[in-house]
Amino acid sequence: TLASVLTEGVRNTIGDSRVKVTYEPEYVPAVPPAMPDIPLEQLAAMIKATVRVEVLDGNMAYLKIQHIIGEEMAQKVGPLLLEYIWDKILPTSAMILDFRSAISGEISGIPYIVSYYTDAEPQIHIDSVYDRTLDITTELWSMPTLLGKRYGTSKPLIILTSKNTLGVAEDVAYCLQNLKRATIVGENTAGGTVKIDKIRVGDTDFYVSVPSAKSINPITGKSWEIYGVAPDVSVSAEDALDTAIAIIQLRAE
């Protein structure tokens, strides 16, 4: 009860809904595991569990992503990604990226996704991430070389969002939206952050979850955090896919 009251008080004071106070007597800090030596068959199963790929009527690609993998994982499973996902949807004439259930991801995965929808040259400054803990700003740029072919810059790309779309997926959507490369269809996103740290309060069982990094878009000079990414076409999450299909069909006509 006290944690709930403190959370409400802090949020009202600083106007940041991402900050949360919790009481967790049994909490054990998570240690990020090293990249496990998992057989490729198991990695393929993991990918299939978090990614859904389909070619819809009208030669439209539909790609649903729940977790955006980072650079290290992308390099390890690259051939699987090409075989299971990319080679199937590369020949399509339009693509729908479904981020409505995307709630986790790695910052290093942002340039990977964005680069597949931009040209190899010139490189584009797509994002800057300021780490408050280290007091360092890291610039994210599009990648000149990629595994497999690029989807290109001319074919329609629509990203589906919901009020649950969170964190790194919000960043990808905001980058592609402001590069004028994608149309966002759905709901205003959650307004999360690219990184959250959980800090113990003194010698107690209370913890504060607080954003420890900030994304700043080089085009807008602003961040999508707290307020979320506003869709170009605002519809309920349930209607987003049908609306996206209708938009692509209309453009084709």
UniProtKB/TrEMBL annotation:
Keyword field: Receptor
Single GO MF annotation: serine-type peptidase activity
Pfam families: Peptidase_S41, Peptidase_S41_N
SUPFAM superfamilies, A to Z: ClpP/crotonase
Domain of life: Eukaryota
Residue intervals passing through the bilayer: none
InterPro entries: ClpP/crotonase-like_dom_sf (IPR029045), Tail-specific_protease (IPR005151)
Domain Tail specific protease: 39-236
SMART domains to which the protein is assigned, alphabetical: TSPc (SM00245)
GO BP terms: proteolysis
Record protein name field: Interphotoreceptor retinoid-binding protein
Source organism per UniProt: Pseudogastromyzon myersi
Gene symbol of the encoding locus: irbp
